[in-house]
Amino acid sequence: MDSLVEPRWPPGLAVMKTIDDLLRCGICFEYFNIAMMIPQCSHNYSHRAGPEKQ
Fold this sequence. Notes:
- The protein is α+β, with helices and mostly antiparallel strands.
- The chain has a single domain, classed as Herpes Virus-1.
- The chain contains one helix and two strands; from the N terminus they run H-E-E.
- Strands 1-2 form a two-stranded antiparallel ribbon.
- The radius of gyration is 13 Å and the shape is elongated.
- The chain starts with 13 loop residues before the first helix and ends in an 8-residue tail after the last strand.
- GO terms for molecular function: single-stranded DNA binding; ubiquitin protein ligase activity.
- InterPro entries: Rad18, Znf_RING/FYVE/PHD.
């Protein structure tokens, strides 16, 4: 993992924080390289954090 500390975004760049959040895996918090999707619910995760890695 790169870091578990969230980057601090200035108040005027709230949109950039949203974009940053969308580009990160919700499991490992790394930026997506190869994104995977669960078809039943459309959740995304990094191929590095997928069920086959656990």
